[in-house]
Design a protein that fits this description.
The complex is a heterodimer.
Chain A lengths: L2 H26 L1 H17 L7 H15 L3 H8 L27 E7 L5 E7 L4 H12 L13 E5 L5 E3 L16 E5 L28 H17 L3 H10 L8 H23 L3 H20 L3 H11 L2 H4 L2 H5 L3 H14 L2 H13 L8 H14 L10 H4 L13 H11 L7 H11 L5
Antiparallel strand pairs in A: 1-2, 3-4, 3-5
Helix pairs in contact in A: 1-2, 1-3, 2-3, 6-9, 6-17, 7-15, 8-9, 8-10, 8-18, 9-10, 9-13
Chain B lengths: L8 E8 L5 H10 L12 E7 L7 E7 L7 H9 L3 E7 L3 H18 L6 E6 L13 H11 L3 E4 L8 H11 L9 H5 L5 H6 L8 H4 L1
Parallel strand pairs in B: 1-3, 1-4, 4-5, 5-6
Antiparallel strand pairs in B: 2-3
Classes of the chains: A mainly alpha, B alpha/beta.
Family (chain B): Belongs to the small GTPase superfamily. RasD family.
InterPro entries (chain B): P-loop_NTPase, Small_GTP-bd, Small_GTPase, Small_GTPase_RasD
Pfam family, one (chain B): Ras
């Protein structure tokens, strides 16, 4: 390979990088432009010696322009958006609209609670640092002259429904998407930390009266798969890399990837919640059948994320201990579920899951937690890597999921239901419910 | 008693157009202060714990909502989970009174015939005709009290006049003793007499005098 070819090879890697990161770089503005600019200047100097580089140099010049001034239209569409993140506003008005990818510069509304469970709602960038969040909260909290001590020393804490607390550092960034299903942000003074209590469970329907009973397994599975596709196609390839390789220092936060992971855990808890809220034994058996059917349909539609999430939800100890319920299940379903469970079996490095994946033809939605585990392993075991890291095309080909356009009321109802699942994610509570349904002795 | 579904908890919700002074009224009541700078509210929940008659602790929740951002589903939820409603308009903004009418219709629809304890609040009551007031207390009061069968009060967060009256009306509607004692309540006795004389709290029994 001669010198010109080597230079061209370098440039082609650079173009590949720019192509992949285009949106993210554009969003960063000026800062991101220094790399193509410098490269462009270097390449121009070489041009007299290597005239064959002219095409590439022109291309590079175009890139510096692209990154220099993103089109006004694009800027406009970015600016106006303030989106309630679904975690904090459970019933967002836009839940039926297709999901769009979140970017760090997007603004969201978020509730921040105080120890007495009152709250303020702040408006902030998704990528906001904790210090900035606290400044916004402080501004909202300090209203009066007669308040002797201004709350100067506030901390931001994530409190799970089970009461576990995690204190954020002021330098932490983009914390919103990292919160668990029923985890809320609290603010308090350090001395109040121990007294923080989780919010009461926010389940608004009465036990045994779930809407799920009136929906067919097909409908629910279709909506689960459709939503997963939406969520998954919001994830930029780079987010995988950021998640695994850079950890906290990464330049971009893997926001959309974190939301996919959150969804996975939400579906798991949804399954357990629905079963444990169901008081009558025959109905519970029905529900169990329905979930196994839903899992089968998700698998059939190659959505391994929801498939395994449902299976793991049924494997929750609070559900699997319900002996009477499982005994009521026809043998056919029990057998099918055992098969499903074996796919979730981690032995021999998840062999059966991997066998399943290789037997499927893309497009498919992978079980994302495992994908990330593999990437981490790859990262930690290999110093260098060759070729493509993730064969992403295999996971998400330019496949656009064709949503069925049917819009009957029941269809919309299912869609809304699936997109705002109400779940209990407090394992202790789930276990208590389980013991109430079928006491230990029976 | 509580529609919010929790025992010993009462929730009041403030609804109304943007910039009518919902947050300012609440702030005056809770902290006896007034901020001239306008900031848009998204949604805030204030909590007061008090013991009305030594009969056990009550939790009073005051939900401040957004007039500027439109979240129909959020508003629906707040209407379903509240015990009494303050519908706030500004006396210098006829459009905000229209919004109050619309909100009332929405509340009645969502409550499906169940009684809805509504207090209509004319905010910025310190404004005189020369300062932009276009809605007269007597006119609005006639509509609200006769046609809507709801309560009516005027108040000013800037001067502090009758902000306590707003909360008194709300608490009376949910049959609660209204001796809550945040800042504004304590302040009542020290209120400059001049202000009281100038704009006495609007109650039904002196409505003739005012018109």
């Amino acid at each position: 390979m001669d010198a010109a070819e080597r230079k061209q090879a370098v440039l082609s890697v650079a173009f590949r990088y720019l192509d992949t990161y285009r949106e993210l770089l554009q969003e960063e503005g000026e800062r991101s432009n220094s790399f193509p600019k410098e490269l462009y200047l270097c390449a121009v100097q070489e041009l007299s010696r290597y005239p064959e580089l002219v095409e590439d140099v022109l291309k590079l010049q175009r890139w510096t322009e692209i990154l220099h001034c993103p089109s006004d239209e694009e800027k406009e569409s970015r600016k106006k958006q303030v989106r309630p993140l679904f975690r904090h506003f459970r019933r967002i008005d836009a839940c039926l609209q297709p999901r769009e990818a979140f970017r760090g510069s997007d603004e969201i509304f978020c509730r921040v609670y105080t120890p007495d469970h009152s709250y303020v709602t702040i408006r902030s960038r998704l990528s906001c640092r904790v210090g900035e969040i606290l400044a916004l909260v402080r501004e909202k909290l300090q209203y009066s002259e007669d308040q002797p001590v201004l709350p100067g020393n506030l901390i931001l804490v994530a409190v799970t429904s089970a009461g576990e607390k995690a204190v954020f550092r002021p330098s932490d960034e983009a914390v919103f998407t990292t919160l668990g299903v029923n985890t809320h942000l609290f603010t308090c003074e350090p001395s109040e930390l121990d007294s923080l209590l989780p919010l009461p469970e926010e389940i608004h329907w009465t036990p045994g009266d779930s809407k799920l009973h009136d929906m067919s397994a097909e409908e629910v599975a279709n909506q689960l798969v459709a939503f997963d596709w939406e969520l998954f196609s919001c994830v930029h390839e780079v987010e995988f890399v950021c998640y695994v390789f850079h950890g906290e220092q990464s330049r971009w936060r893997p926001l959309n990837l974190e939301l996919v992971l959150q969804r996975c855990s939400e579906v798991q808890h949804w399954v357990a919640t629905e079963i444990l809220q169901c008081q009558s034994l025959p109905k519970r058996v029905q529900l169990l059948r329905k979930f196994i059917k839903i899992a089968a349909l998700c698998k059939q539609q190659q959505d391994l994320l929801s498939f395994l999430a449902v299976v793991l939800g049924l494997d929750n100890p609070a559900v699997s201990r319900l002996r009477l319920t499982w005994e009521g299940l026809p043998g056919k379903f029990r057998k099918q579920f055992q098969q499903f469970e074996s796919v979730a079996d981690p032995s021999r490095n998840h062999k059966s899951y991997r066998d399943l994946i290789t037997s499927l033809r893309p497009p498919l939605i992978p079980f994302t937690p495992l994908l990330l585990k593999d990437l981490t392993f790859l990262h930690e075991s290999c110093k260098t890597f060759h070729g493509e890291l993730v064969n992403f095309e295999k996971m998400v080909s330019p496949f656009t999921f064709t949503m069925d356009t049917e819009t009957s009321p029941s269809h919309l109802q299912t869609k809304a239901y699936v997109r705002q699942l109400q779940v209990i994610d407090n394992q202790n509570l789930l276990f208590d419910m389980s013991c109430k349904l079928e006491p230990k002795d029976t | 008693m509580s529609l919010s579904g929790r025992p010993n908890t009462v929730r009041l919700v403030f609804l109304g157009a943007a910039r009518v002074g919902k947050s300012a009224l609440i702030r005056r009541f809770l902290h006896d202060s007034f901020e001239h700078k306008y900031t848009r509210t998204v949604e805030e929940l204030h909590v007061l714990e008090y013991d009305p008659a030594g009969s056990g602790k009550m939790r009073l929740e005051i939900l401040d909502t957004s007039g500027s951002y439109s979240f129909p589903a959020m508003r629906e939820l707040s209407i379903r989970h509240s015990d009494a409603f303050a519908l706030v308009y500004a006396v210098d903004d006829p459009g905000s009174l229209e919004e109050v009418k619309r909100l009332r219709d929405e509340i009645l629809r969502l409550r499906g015939g169940k009684s809805a304890p509504i207090t209509v609040v004319g905010s910025k009551a310190d404004l005189k005709d020369t300062e932009g007031r276009v809605l007269l207390a007597a006119d609005v009061m006639a509509t609200v009290e006769n046609e809507w069968d709801a309560d009516f009060v005027e108040a000013s967060a800037r001067t502090g006049v009758n902000t306590v009256g707003v909360f008194r009306a709300l608490l009376q509607q949910v049959n609660l003793p209204h001796r809550v004692s945040p800042a504004a309540w304590r302040r009542r006795d020290t209120l400059p007499r001049r202000a009281v004389k100038k704009r006495p709290p609007l109650k039904k029994n002196n409505s003739c005098v005012l018109s």
